[in-house]
Amino acid sequence: MAAVREAASEIVGRPVTWDGLAQVKGDAREISPLADALTGIGCLLLTVAFLGIWVYGLVSLFD
To answer: Using CA atoms, how far apart are residues 43 and 10, in angstroms rounded to an integer?
Structure first.
């Protein structure tokens, strides 16, 4: 584990410890409002498709 810590320290450019959470500064990707909207629309469409297939199967079962 010491070798992994040393390699990570060299890559990051600062000492790496396993005692706490990593602090991300400047490397985090900003998500645009368009990406948020598309994600929500995609989840909604998947939910509607899943429920539609489920209802179709239920109706077919009793038909």
So the answer is: 40
Up-side HSE of residue 29: CA atoms within 13 Å toward CB? Answer: 4
Whether 16 contacts 7, CB under 8 Å: no
Q: Please give the Cα distance from 53 to 47 (Å, whole number).
A: 10
17 Cβ partners below 8 Å, 6+ apart? 5
Query: pLDDT per residue over 32-62, tens digit each?
Result: 889 899 999 999 999 999 999 999 999 999 9
Vertex 29 angle, CA 23 and 32, to 5°: 140
